[in-house]
Design brief:
Bound molecules: L-tyrosinamide
CATH topology of one domain: Ribosomal Protein L30, Chain: A
CATH superfamily of one domain: Ribosomal protein L7/L12, C-terminal domain/Adaptor protein ClpS
Number of strands: 3
Distance between the termini: 55 Å
CATH architecture of one domain: 2-Layer Sandwich
Strand order of the largest sheet: 2-1-3
CATH class of one domain: Alpha Beta
Largest sheet: 3 strands, antiparallel
Length: 99
């Protein structure tokens, strides 16, 4: 019996990439500008200048992009924003949206 028979196997190497999600901060009338800047620096790792720009964009246009992440990381960021805001008495909200 041949033991070295070569079998051609069709391997369908379909590479799938994880979907990405945009995380946005939403404007409100109560959260202070300084707190939003702090959130952008501590949770989204923005520089002070980037954080100021994103905060002002949210303030003027009602929402601003904070970053693009995999589903799990985006979900965690949204949760961290809401939890930290709530702990500090602010109604600040973040949302995620498939890219
Ligand atoms: N609009 C807020 C104010 O005038 C500031 C603010 C900016 C709040 C961005 C939320 O995501 C936000 N104090």
């Amino acid at each position: 019996m041949a033991t070295d028979t070569k079998h051609e196997v069709d391997v369908d190497l379909e590479l799938t990439y994880p979907k990405k999600y945009k995380v946005y901060l939403l404007n409100d009338d109560y959260t202070t500008m300084d707190f939003v800047v702090d959130i952008l620096m501590s949770i989204f790792h923005k520089s002070y200048e980037e954080a100021q720009n994103i905060m002002l964009e949210v303030h003027k246009k009602d929402r601003g992009l904070c970053g693009v992440y995999t589903h799990e990381i985006a979900e965690t960021k949204v949760m961290q924003v809401i939890t930290k805001a709530k702990d500090n008495g602010f109604p600040l909200k973040a949302v995620m949206e498939e890219e």
